[in-house]
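Bug #77: duplicate submission created two jobs. Keeping one. Sequence:
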Amino acid sequence: MNKKILVVLIILIVLIIGWLVWKYQISGNVLITTDKTEYEQKETLRVKIKNNFRKNVCFSSCYPYYLERKTEEWKSYLYGDCQKKDLIETCVNPGEVKAFEITLSPVEAGLHRIAIPICSDCKTGEEFKESRKFYSNEFTIKEKDETANWKTYRNEEYGFEIKYPDDWHIHEVEDGYIGIVDTEEKVFPQMVFQKSNWMGVTIIYYSKPTDFTWEEWLRKRDIVGYEKSTERGLEVIKITERTGIFPGEVFFGNEKKIYGLDYMSEYFNEDGSINREKEQECLNIFNQMLSTFRLLE
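Kept job's structure:
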């Protein structure tokens, strides 16, 4: 056999053996699984990482994982700059499993996954250098239902129901006028606009004349600016501008009935000024209550 051909064959054999050894060493994967496929915001997500490589895998101490959300493509939530050197602190040996937890706050609702960069065959104390990146199963994060444990107020006479915080109280003031407030004291009507400390939501029922359009009905009540939509089979009017003082930040209605819902916060600071934090808290509760308003069948 020609000597040159023999040398070429030996080189080819060495290259093939080297490739096979390399392929053997890098074969396998890192299996990342979550304990569920559906979570609520602020819930704790539990993750397991199993190393199916034939070498150990190590993780970044600065960015051990990325939470990604699917829009048109997968995008990671932004992280702040790491203020330390990114040294390896944790590794997983072949066949071993590592578990950790993530609190899902603050995150948006939608389809998500976890991306974990790894350094293969590295050691603790070394600077992290990413070799590959692996991904978990996909999972859904839902908006947390803050009203899940609330009470339900049901009014058969006026044909509606609504949920409210479990430490608030119902005050049926007069026909068609209901107050739901954070105190057992009777605050309607004598304490309205006085410097007391309470917050609440008012519901007023109206029988809508059939010969009036929505526009005419609203105009008669000095309401000149509003946004109109349809939710749960009801027309919804959200007030943006009015010329007089009139309750009803939001109206729900159909051809026969109209319900005006408004919120009030009568919390004051020591200097007599309005407590804006309490006012915002009341507005947040009001918006959550709006989402639960239903007409009875």
